[in-house]
Specification:
The complex is a heterodimer. By secondary structure, chain A is mostly helical. Chain A is built from 13 helices and 2 strands, in the order H-E-E-H-H-H-H-H-H-H-H-H-H-H-H. Chain B has 2 domains: 58 residues, no CATH class; 207 residues, MetI-like (MetI-like fold), CATH 1.10.3720.10. Chain B has 14 helices and no strands. The two termini of chain B are 36 Å apart. The chains are: A mainly alpha, B mainly alpha. At the A-B interface, helix 1, helix 4, helix 5, helix 6 and helix 7 of A face helix 1, helix 3, helix 4, helix 5 and helix 6 of B.
């Protein structure tokens, strides 16, 4: 370590200014903005927590979005964690084909959410989509997918599993590499089966990775925007109107920055609560 | 014992092959559809035959159309310009800060480090609305600056550089100091050339972020002059009659750069992941 305050600050200041200006400052602005109301003339007035109380007391659109977002997260997050974990377990070996499949599963990560949305919108098109062709091929009834209030949210969930599983799989693969080989050798000497090894060694030792993936993925999915914007626009009848999209509409369609900022702040609070609960639930009970 | 291992491998291979269909089939179908003439784009999806995935006549007319008639080339160039500028600024700014955080003990170091950690835990989408309010006040909304500057504020990049520089032995720098080199020279001539792996990781990370972003460009700009790739793709959807041919071909053309980068530099994608502090 060198000691030279002037030199050190010279190197730190450019990056620090960017962080303060474009990250820290907006977080503060967001909260202040949520305490104001903009009149028709564009004049801002301080209203305290009125935006929040209004949302909670008189805003059925907000409540609908709130519940849609909660349901969406509670389904999509465990689903992604399970699918990425299973994929990682399947690919943890060193066969000549594992590299190839790793690339295939990881590939959707390189494709933007906008494009992934376009792909799934067309695959799940009720009239021309590939999904219904497969269903009819197996003698099943074609489904309405995104044009049905019961199925639209499931369409978004499917899309997200397709796009994100490979990404989180990489974290699990990194976690699996860190488990000492000696543990498995010892278990083999004791005559443990593959299933026993998975449940008694691998999964318990992956808890730390699992809680990271769960928390990071939760924050990420609470902020889903592109699929809603491109495919459903929140419909049909608000069934996919996630909070992030509602906040966007509030800010840039209805020009109500106060309401939009209040929704974003609530969203951040929900993310904090969820992360905290998830960290508690997945806390590792031992170390290695 | 030997044959049992082979059968296990065959079973594993079959399971993986079936799972991979879920990832490959939609992509194969989109590519096949975009290579068909614009009118019968959909004809082959139902009923399902091998024709669904292999066009009888391959044509690039849909791609020619989006570049000559819809100015998709402009969107590609915009995205390229925004990505490259952001990468350039981020590599300089983040490596400087990473160097100071790794090698200097200075007043306020702990505070700076805390700010870096906070900022890479706050997801970008959550500050889009206040960020818009801010760039409007700065009067840089609807400019390239609005697209580039927020992308440079990247705590994760600083963290990656810090981790990398912490491994570089301080003796090299001490020796250079004795030879009379300035700190700026040490940073520029010794550390930066050494940190190629970290630089490539950051380049890949920043490129993917900028090239694939939709929400922020949608909010920060409104002139077609500044339309980036993802916004252009989304706009092909939101016009009155969605043109499937335009949508397919722009989605594929817009995905080629990141997918190619991914296939050639996969190692660095993974490094970005394992460098995020997961290892113990």
């Amino acid at each position: 370590m060198f000691r030279n305050n002037r030199v050190a600050w010279f190197f730190v200041i450019p990056a620090l200014s960017f962080l303060l200006l474009f990250k820290i400052w907006p977080i503060g602005v967001s909260f202040i903005e949520s305490l104001t109301m903009t009149s028709f003339t564009g004049k801002k007035t301080f209203v305290g927590f009125e935006n929040y109380t209004y949302l909670f007391k008189y805003d059925p659109v907000f409540w609908n979005s709130f519940w849609v977002t909660i349901v969406y997260s509670v389904i999509v997050n465990p689903l992604i964690v399970i699918s990425s974990l299973l994929m990682a377990l399947l690919l943890n070996g060193s066969h000549f084909f594992t590299r190839f499949f790793r690339t295939v599963f990881f590939l959707p990560t390189a494709i933007s959410f906008a494009v992934v949305s376009v792909i799934w919108m067309i695959v799940l098109d009720p009239y021309y989509g590939l999904a219904n062709s497969f269903l009819t091929l197996f003698g099943l009834k074609p489904q309405p997918f995104f044009s049905s209030t019961a199925q639209a949210l499931w369409g978004l969930i499917m899309l997200n599993v397709w796009r994100s599983s490979g990404y989180w799989m990489m974290y699990f693969l990194a976690g699996l590499q860190n488990i000492p080989e000696a543990l498995y050798e010892a278990a083999e000497i004791d005559g443990a089966s593959t299933l026993q090894k998975t449940f008694r060694i691998t999964l318990p030792l992956l808890t730390r990775t699992m809680s990271f993936v769960l928390v990071a993925n939760t924050a990420f999915n609470f902020l889903s925007f592109a699929p809603v914007y491109i495919i459903t626009k929140g419909g049909p009848i608000g069934s996919t109107n996630l909070l992030m999209y509602e906040s966007y509409k509030s800010a840039f369609v209805n020009l109500d920055m106060g309401r939009a900022s209040a929704i974003t702040s609530i969203l951040l609070a929900i993310i904090l609560v969820f992360s905290f609960v998830e960290l508690r639930l997945t806390r590792a009970k031992f170390d290695y | 014992m030997r044959t049992r291992g082979v059968w296990k491998a065959v079973a594993l291979f079959s399971v993986l092959a079936i799972v991979s269909l879920f990832f490959i089939v939609p992509l194969a179908w989109i590519v096949a559809s975009a290579l068909r003439p614009a009118s019968p784009l959909y004809e082959y999806a139902n009923p399902l035959t091998w024709r669904t995935f292999i066009p009888s006549k391959i044509t690039f007319e849909n791609f020619v159309h989006i570049f000559t008639k819809l100015d998709f080339g402009r969107a590609i160039l915009n995205s390229l310009f925004v990505s490259v500028s952001t990468i350039f600024l981020t590599v300089i700014v983040a490596s400087m800060a990473g160097f100071a955080l790794a090698k200097f003990d200075f007043r306020g170091r702990q505070l700076v480090f805390t700010i870096v950690l906070i900022t890479f835990m706050v997801p970008f989408e959550s500050i889009v609305i206040p960020l818009y309010v801010m760039i409007k006040q700065l009067r840089i909304d609807n400019t390239y600056w609005a697209l580039i500057l927020p992308g440079v504020a990247n705590g994760l990049a600083i963290f990656l550089f810090r981790q990398f520089f912490a491994e570089v032995p301080s003796e090299i720098m001490e020796a250079a100091r004795i030879d009379g080199a300035s700190w700026l020279r040490i940073y520029w001539r010794i550390l930066l050339p050494l940190s190629m792996p970290a630089i490539v990781t950051v380049i890949v990370m920043v490129f993917m972020f900028q090239w694939n972003s939709l929400f922020w460009p949608l909010v920060a700009t409104h002139s077609s002059r500044f339309e980036v790739v993802q916004v252009a793709i989304a706009s092909h959807r939101s016009t009155e009659n969605t043109s499937w041919a335009n949508l397919f071909s722009s989605a594929i053309a817009g995905s080629l750069p990141p997918v190619l980068l991914f296939l050639f530099l996969q190692k660095y994608f993974v490094r970005g992941i394992s460098g995020t502090g997961l290892k113990g």
